[in-house]
Write a structure and sequence with these properties.
Layout: E1 2-6, E2 9-13, E3 19-21, E4 26-29, H1 36-41, H2 51-66, E5 70-74, H3 83-86, H4 89-101, E6 103-107, H5 117-124, E7 127-129, E8 132-134, E9 137-139, E10 151-153, E11 158-164, E12 167-172, E13 174-178, E14 185-187, E15 198-199, H6 203-208, E16 214-221, E17 224-232
């Protein structure tokens, strides 16, 4: 884990794509996309059916690593609305154990539309919310253009794409904007085992984080926080 100062508070960015908020004892993960493999299997694209287990094992490891007492998922929790019904017993048991062990909140995203909230809460535990405001920080699935409050979101699956000595490197990263005040906004990397990625400098991400004075990609590297400029406001 590496320290990350953001919006006047201190966070820890894990090597496993999660963000830990020590003051709130909260772990934040975005875009789990549970049961993505079983979704594609329905349409003749067989994938190893263990993505949910792997993703939940990663969550459990991050909880142990940080000591988190709360978990906030930032939307696109399942790959489709029927995902909770396809969750095989072993993975369902893993998830139930995690939601019992922590104060777990599912923030919903566009892939979660149609999920029956009460049924999901009763079967898998945790609580559902469209978005939350905690300690002055807004937690939602998709960054809201024009938002001036500190914000944590997911949705875009950002990846840093750079070339070093003719080597093309792609790594999941967070994207952080600064607006000149104590505020700021952050898009977390996708956490799920089968999630792809979008170039962190994609115009859609940069536009979603406006207004801003600067936008950077950040990720752990060699035990330190590496920061790569993506966009700067004109002087």
């Amino acid at each position: 884990m590496v320290p990350l100062s953001f919006a006047g508070d201190e966070f820890l960015l894990t090597t496993g794509r999660a963000l830990y908020w020590p003051r709130e004892q909260a772990l934040l993960v975005a875009d789990l996309h549970l049961e993505k493999a079983s979704f594609y299997a329905q349409y003749g694209q067989p994938l190893p059916p263990y993505d949910s287990r792997e993703t939940l094992e990663r969550v459990a490891l991050a909880i142990r690593e940080t000591g988190a007492r709360r978990v906030y998922t930032l939307g696109d929790n399942f790959h489709d609305s029927a995902g909770p019904t396809r969750l095989e017993p072993h993975a369902a048991g893993m998830l139930a154990a995690l939601t019992r062990a922590t104060d777990w909140v599912w923030i919903t995203g566009n892939h979660d539309q149609g999920v029956e909230g009460a049924a999901m809460e009763n079967r898998l535990g945790g609580e559902l919310a469209e978005e939350l405001a905690i300690a002055g920080m807004v937690l939602r699935h998709r960054a809201k253009p024009g938002e001036v409050r500190p914000e944590l979101s997911g949705h875009y699956h950002p990846r840093l794409q750079i070339t070093v000595r003719e080597r093309h490197i792609r790594r999941p990263c967070a994207v952080v904007s600064r607006n000149g005040n104590e505020g700021g906004r952050m898009v977390l990397p996708a956490f799920g085992a089968l999630t792809g990625g979008m170039d962190a400098a994609d115009p859609a991400i940069l536009a979603a984080l406006q207004p801003a004075r600067a936008i950077d990609a950040v990720l752990p590297a060699g035990g330190k926080l590496a920061r790569f400029p993506l966009w700067r406001a004109a002087a």
